Amino acid sequence: MPSSPALKLHPDRLLPTEPAVRAIARELYESVRQLPIISPHGHVPAQWLADDIPFTDPTSLLITPDHYVNRLMHAHGVDLSELGVGRGPLTAEESRQAFRIVCANWHVYRGTPVRFWFDSQLADIFNVTVRPSADTADRIYDQIQECLDSPEFRPRALYDRFNIEVLATTDDPCDDLAAHRRLRDDDSWSRRVIPTFRPDRYLEAASPGWIDTVDRLAEVSGVDTSDYAGFIAALENRRRYFVDHGAVSSDHSHLDARTDLLEPAEAEYLFNLARKGEIAEHEATMLRRHLISEMARMACDDGLVMTMHPAVRRNHHLPTFESYGADVGTDIPVRVEFTDALRPMLNRYGTHPNFQLVVFTLDETVFSTELGPLAGFYPSVYAGAPWWFIDAPEAIRRYRAAITESAGFTKTSGFIDDTRAFCSIPARHDMSRRLDASFVAQLVAEHRLDADEALETVHDLVVTNPRRAFKL
């Protein structure tokens, strides 16, 4: 029987192909390769680290929580339930079978960033030396399982091994943040894990369950939300609670980026309609756009950095949403406009000394025409890194070229991994460092940047920029 193809990570992967430029890129990459990871936007549960419970099996760690992996399997006819999505703990055989499915379909990921990340996880974290396939699936599974059964692969040990300086989670405004509190009070834990205030469902007044959500907000905050003033006060209360528990940002994702302001009486009228369950969809949209500007006003007071990543059609396939819930890979990007959409908010708060806004997009067409120019004028605005569907090598290269021409390097956010797949964090950041080193190396080769400036720049992109953009 022929031997299985080897899994090899080339040391120059993603670096330029032209020898002279590659040599410069190698030096730049090497200078940042081991710098700490700053992850100010992600979805890894704080409870994993607070409890430090061993990961049970390779599938629940590497496959089930990673919608990047699962959605491509679904596109090729694999039911999400076969990968553990929307289910409780898998049996040992179910877990192994899910892993076999992914390995047998490894060709599906060729040329995708998912392949780069997964290869890096297998080789760098678990020392896997054979390429995934139907023939090697069990061998790889057993090797990873053996690792997970050892103390060196528990969540906290991996956090230290990955050299993560700060990790932000994404949290509901009514979350008591108990896991964060346990981490903060644990004398044996010296790393930083911080919550993020995510109020989306509280701002969408026509969404199912909104009235119950607002009632819950009143219960948790201790502020009556039966009227508009109380609702605003309750949100302010919970934001302060998050700040007291280490939060540095709020996170907002809606269908558009508009921030149109309403007159106080009109906002109160629409809120009252919503409380009675009588608000129309277009009226709820008007209220939500106003409330986004209210989030900016609150940010000027409490200092939370405001992050926006709009223009995603959530739960595009309703049967999948009804069967498995949200965040399983069925969200699809739509086009977005920022220049006019953000103008009401930025006219009011764009030069406020305490306001900072990081804007992300899935629409590459706005990098050079909107986000770059906005970040290149407003002191408060930072151009967020490519994320989700466009955190791929080609898109990251295009982002650097498009944003740098009008905003430079310093008004960008630093890389955002935005992942639920814990072990993919170092692979994602490594990809970004390689690509940024390559981009800056080209500037050196063209004599547009001196060597000392290039070294300083790649360092800033890894650590200085995210610390500045997120007030870390």
β-strand number: 9
Structural class: alpha/beta
Instruction: Tell me roughly what share of residues is in helical segments.
Output: 40-55%
Radius of gyration: 23 Å
In spatial order, strands of the major sheet run 4-5-8-9
CATH architecture of the largest domain: Alpha-Beta Barrel
Counted up, domains total 2
- The helix-strand sequence is HEHHHHHHHEHEHHHEHHEEHEHEHEHHH
Total helices: the number is: 20
Largest sheet: 4 strands, parallel
CATH topology type of the largest domain: TIM Barrel
Could you tell me the strand content as a percent range? 5-15%
Task: Give the name of the CATH superfamily of the largest domain.
Answer: Metal-dependent hydrolases
Distance between termini? 55 Å
Molecular shape: globular
Outline the low-pLDDT stretches.
Answer: none
For the record, what CATH class of the largest domain applies? Alpha Beta
Average pLDDT, all residues = 96
Structure description:
The protein has 472 residues and is α/β, with parallel strands linked by helices. The protein has 2 domains: 56-153, uronate isomerase, domain 2, chain A (Orthogonal Bundle), CATH 1.10.2020; 163-469, Metal-dependent hydrolases (TIM Barrel, Alpha-Beta Barrel), CATH 3.20.20.140. Helix content is 49%, strand content 6%. The strands form 3 sheets. Strands 4-5-8-9 form a 4-stranded parallel beta sheet, covered by helices on one side. A 3-stranded parallel beta sheet has the order 1-2-3. β8 (357-359), α17 (367-375) and β9 (381-383) form a beta-alpha-beta unit. The longest helix has 22 residues, at 281-302.
